[in-house]
Amino acid sequence: MSEPIKPVGDFAQLDTDRVRRRGYPEAIYCEGKTVEQVRAIAQAVDSDHVTLFTRLNDEQATAIMRELPGAFYDPLARLIAFPAEAPEPSGVSVLVVCAGTSDLPVAREAMHTARYLGRSVSLIADVGVAGIHRLLAHEEELQSAGVIVVVAGMDGALPSVVGGLVSAPVVAVPTSVGYGAGAGGIAPLLTMLNSCAPGVGVVNIDNGYGAGHLAAQIAAR
Amino acid sequence: MSEPIKPVGDFAQLDTDRVRRRGYPEAIYCEGKTVEQVRAIAQAVDSDHVTLFTRLNDEQATAIMRELPGAFYDPLARLIAFPAEAPEPSGVSVLVVCAGTSDLPVAREAMHTARYLGRSVSLIADVGVAGIHRLLAHEEELQSAGVIVVVAGMDGALPSVVGGLVSAPVVAVPTSVGYGAGAGGIAPLLTMLNSCAPGVGVVNIDNGYGAGHLAAQIAAR
Amino acid sequence: MSEPIKPVGDFAQLDTDRVRRRGYPEAIYCEGKTVEQVRAIAQAVDSDHVTLFTRLNDEQATAIMRELPGAFYDPLARLIAFPAEAPEPSGVSVLVVCAGTSDLPVAREAMHTARYLGRSVSLIADVGVAGIHRLLAHEEELQSAGVIVVVAGMDGALPSVVGGLVSAPVVAVPTSVGYGAGAGGIAPLLTMLNSCAPGVGVVNIDNGYGAGHLAAQIAAR
Amino acid sequence: MSEPIKPVGDFAQLDTDRVRRRGYPEAIYCEGKTVEQVRAIAQAVDSDHVTLFTRLNDEQATAIMRELPGAFYDPLARLIAFPAEAPEPSGVSVLVVCAGTSDLPVAREAMHTARYLGRSVSLIADVGVAGIHRLLAHEEELQSAGVIVVVAGMDGALPSVVGGLVSAPVVAVPTSVGYGAGAGGIAPLLTMLNSCAPGVGVVNIDNGYGAGHLAAQIAAR
Amino acid sequence: MSEPIKPVGDFAQLDTDRVRRRGYPEAIYCEGKTVEQVRAIAQAVDSDHVTLFTRLNDEQATAIMRELPGAFYDPLARLIAFPAEAPEPSGVSVLVVCAGTSDLPVAREAMHTARYLGRSVSLIADVGVAGIHRLLAHEEELQSAGVIVVVAGMDGALPSVVGGLVSAPVVAVPTSVGYGAGAGGIAPLLTMLNSCAPGVGVVNIDNGYGAGHLAAQIAAR
Amino acid sequence: MSEPIKPVGDFAQLDTDRVRRRGYPEAIYCEGKTVEQVRAIAQAVDSDHVTLFTRLNDEQATAIMRELPGAFYDPLARLIAFPAEAPEPSGVSVLVVCAGTSDLPVAREAMHTARYLGRSVSLIADVGVAGIHRLLAHEEELQSAGVIVVVAGMDGALPSVVGGLVSAPVVAVPTSVGYGAGAGGIAPLLTMLNSCAPGVGVVNIDNGYGAGHLAAQIAAR
Amino acid sequence: MSEPIKPVGDFAQLDTDRVRRRGYPEAIYCEGKTVEQVRAIAQAVDSDHVTLFTRLNDEQATAIMRELPGAFYDPLARLIAFPAEAPEPSGVSVLVVCAGTSDLPVAREAMHTARYLGRSVSLIADVGVAGIHRLLAHEEELQSAGVIVVVAGMDGALPSVVGGLVSAPVVAVPTSVGYGAGAGGIAPLLTMLNSCAPGVGVVNIDNGYGAGHLAAQIAAR
Amino acid sequence: MSEPIKPVGDFAQLDTDRVRRRGYPEAIYCEGKTVEQVRAIAQAVDSDHVTLFTRLNDEQATAIMRELPGAFYDPLARLIAFPAEAPEPSGVSVLVVCAGTSDLPVAREAMHTARYLGRSVSLIADVGVAGIHRLLAHEEELQSAGVIVVVAGMDGALPSVVGGLVSAPVVAVPTSVGYGAGAGGIAPLLTMLNSCAPGVGVVNIDNGYGAGHLAAQIAAR
Question: Of D129, D180, D186, which is closest to E160 when you measure between CB atoms?
Fold first, then answer.
């Protein structure tokens, strides 16, 4: 029986009890951590369950891949998963939809997260509302999904339209794609919080990990 | 030949030269004016061209209607037009579209303004994007309009969808309908400024008059 | 077979197709509507499925209860449901938790909404994090819930703590309870979006209806 | 007859139907795209109609010019047009006016956009309101334009003055020129939204492309 | 010889030394004070030098006029001056200019303040920049003023234009006239702080008293 | 031995364990509670230790005074204490200083709170920094205090000056006194957070209760 | 007799009429201009009156100094003046006071500007309010100045204290020195706008040039 | 007897009187100072009492260590103390608690500051509320501390929970750890200001120095 808390140096306490308590392992958010701290944590993880490293810069990723060769690494999504093999999928399916090409990094972080937490996933890219027929061409796929993660920057209008088409819950992720008034993702965040379609739960700007995690929990059965 | 500036008391200078210079008469924005000031201005207007009184409260409206019996008054839009008869329409048509029932006062202010500045106008209400098929049922009407004014609160997503369907320019009006984060119209304003469909010009929150005026200028030929 | 859109006067188009398309009926958001508009809509609803009227003021509520005697009315939650009998519950259970007494109106709006959309619901009140043992006394109840709606104003810290204790998804609702910096619900909204526990989906400030709706969708099986 | 949607890799879906539907081709917004993505899109465009690449950095521009030699490239405006020859101008004229030298990049993006969408264009630079006589010296030119795009940073006062002088519609573009309170273009954006002259439609900060597009639509006949 | 500090009840300490130290008497800002507190202060003032009571509500004004009959009271400016007779004017002249009729209350508060602090004053109303020729008609009067106070709401563009025409310093006062984005005076405040004409000093929104005081100091010789 | 949690109706759970755990009783924050809820809580309190009711409106205060005759009530501070007799003071002294007359309600809420939590208290009013000598006249009193609570609106500059004069910790309370830019207390809040004198801890705007509580804890020995 | 407007390339129009109209020459704000543009302007200036180049980066400064050898250059203030000799001082004296060492660049930009516009200037550094006696040691110097420019970041409290000590007008300049809440100068800007001492005119954050210009105008006689 | 103010060059005036007046020496905030200025100050300090240099960049630190060999330097906390030996601890103990690994730099700046101002200190790291049992495992240590400094980014919920567990005062430090909505520390700042547990005093974002200073003052006896 493992200890519920595993100290790493004097700077971190891994919450190893989390799998038992919540059913999902802890992820390591790497922004603001030094390369040394990240490496020490990589040395401390074991392969009993999947560990995700998120928001990696190049140097951190290199250090981790050296400690954990064979891990899965998606540079676009800035995410490493160890071990590389995802669990056998269970629950209902998670569909990730994103408005523009520039939203792909966040969309893929969400998709990988849900996959490594045990769900079957798929992705539709570049179906923004300015060409609404591109989205409507996928109406069936949308209506058969168990949970839908919608990722959008700029006007952030996509979750309102998707939410209005389906019975599944929608997890909305604003991205920092855009500029000018409401830049940094504030504009799509506000749009999503004010969605005129009910059934939309919002996570923080660019928080693909959080969206994938929530989707995985919702899709669990 | 009239003087270019007509003083009213010591508090206002009517820009009577404006019709000659800009082709459109001045409107009287009544918010922040006393009933006495509004009445004095009503006494000073003549029937050579249409005068609009906007953002009226009940007391101001009563005072004006007493000075200008026979004027047109729409209490929902808080607008009075004198004389009541609109000019013969010219130019291309102006279509006003609004997302929800609560956006109607602003939508009607825009419609009346465009009509009294000499355009033919029509209105489609309650076609928000959460039920996208309600909007698409009007696709032909949208595509045949000369200019479209889109009025929306909450998520403000309607102009992006409409803008993506048509070749006509879109004038977008955010309304203060909504609550919580981005309340007071900030959320739809930001959405509209970040519209992923180009061809959308935005006016201030609840500024139906400004939208109708701009639409009338665009629709002039 | 009913028409997908049912016009009410010239100001509203009821989206009656919504039950078929989304599985849940439309609700009538009453803020910003006139008493006459609300009454006309009340006359147009039928008892085939439940209709919710939300954000009612006293005058609107009185008008509706006159049209729909026997409807369920909770003045604290400012909500009317017609017909009064909720559907037989299905899916997993929805637990609503609120931090303080002042958050109760929003918590009850969420609870009623989930109940009328077909879920079994329960409520725990006044368990803010400043007396953490009050919350921990309910740990088992929290861990057996299917979905948890957490309602909090002020510091909005409750969802982070609850989210860290359970495997179920958490729907977080910031309320406008509080004052000073971040008043109007901005402080708890930001706290919830930045929750250090993943698995938290946020809805707009005071949006009990949206939270209950999302919870009902998540809890559906 | 071409397909309405043309996929590029698994990251983009070109909306080739847009010319038919809206009358104007799609532009490629390059910020946030990788050089590889931009190059792949450049390989996919054809010369049937003009394609604009906007918000280019140097590396992206070099990659595109290698794929599309002979394209028009304005480094100051960060814009590439392919093919280089603009359509024969139609409709009324578009006049671009900018307040200061630092607003020129945005002003030129607007001018090129309108030109490549088929309008005749001209540009007046450095006529800010602090030396009002510089602007008034151009009064005739202003009054004969079909549409005026006004570009300004700092106090953003220019559209109010221009709008008050002419009957043509004004498209106002705030720029991020300035510093301190309201930096990043917020100050001129708010000024323009609050313009005391009606007939001003505002686009997002630094959005020269959007302004040029809207102006081209307005100037079409 | 008077005491430098004169206590009123246990809630106020009149800074009677201020005339000696700064050359100008203290004013009583009445917002947030109870009627009883205001009355007690009125009883404590003497007629050695002028005392101004600013931001009065009706009830406070009535209470003061009862204590200080013969005082000067301007209800529009919400200001009382005691004694009513202003000092013999000295220094150069102060010209107050306001953009719209709704800015008059603030403009008059500024004018009265400067007058009671010993300057000669005059006022030009309703010369907003949307009809620039109305302003230019006063160019000579502007250029001969010693100090100019410019009062404007909405777009707040007037000080930039005035500042560019004259050699005198300009004191700019944003007003809370306006609505929508940047309401409450934020829009004109930012405009004025970003004025492209140097030589503009800004005071707080609606702060006519502060503007008049600063102008009086500048105009002192 | 009492239960750690005492339920009141189904809407509140009094944290009676708090005295044992923290050493200080719970206070009842009354804003947002109905008169019925407040009355029910008043019925549930006992006289074993002091209970504070804060942010009372008139109706709530009347209801409580009827249930708890003999309680201490300060309408200006909107606070009731029961029982009325404060504990014998212990620890070092708490000095409350406020900048203006309008800050008195908050200052008195802080003073009463500290007194009822067992400290000796005193108050200096109307010593804002615009007349710095008024403050310096109290330099000795400031330097002999154990803890100083500084209450200020407007520019909020007082804590920086006081903090620079003394060795005691300073608790700073911004108030919502003021108007225009940074209104509602944002301006003094930011000033206090950016105090150039270290040793200043800030509480929320108008939070006299919180300031008094923190001061009482600091002054405990 | 010179032309009132002197074009430079197709990107700038020097307002050479400005000396006649306003009494002060135009300055060249260099942020956002290319090195080529700045060089071309340097080639166009003559030595009839002083030209200031402000907000220079190193590369721009080098280019100008090559065109105008012998010009005055202060790298800390990022300012070049040509010709180097300042006019004979006239009017009353300008005193610049700054709160901290980090505010010096802005303070020196203000001082140089006033000097080159014809005033006698002096500077007191590092007299922030956290050590109020440092400031009071200069009380006489403060009281004999004709105009005082007060430069401060962080809490921005200095102008309130200075303004309360003197009869001269105060020009307040917030700086971007500071961090955290209200960073970028917002905190001191709000403090200064809310100064409890009247007689304070505020310019934009870090706008030393604007402050020096305004001070020079005020100090002119 | 030393002079109360010690000038360094013409850019700084060391407040050497501060130890006598406040009991604590001045610290040198190095952000925004040039390396030359920092070196000159390092040359001017003596070893009579401890001097802290805070917010150092690498170059500044190197320069100081060359002037003051043997000083204490913590690169993570960006702090140098000279002389390196801290005073003998007095007063009650200061406990620093931080939520995540990324908050460590600020936590250590607070800890060092309190230690060099004469207190005994200890540190608990990585006990965020998402794993509440990690915190509760330290309940005894928390309850025996004299003062607790709580450092947290993201949701900033930790001070509310800690404050609710103890009788000691809590100094809360928001950090800029986090992203998206409320980034830069705004989210945890607002959370802490709205803490539902009284007894929490907040300092500016990332202000470890200020927190340590305040804690040292509170813990003095």
Answer: D129
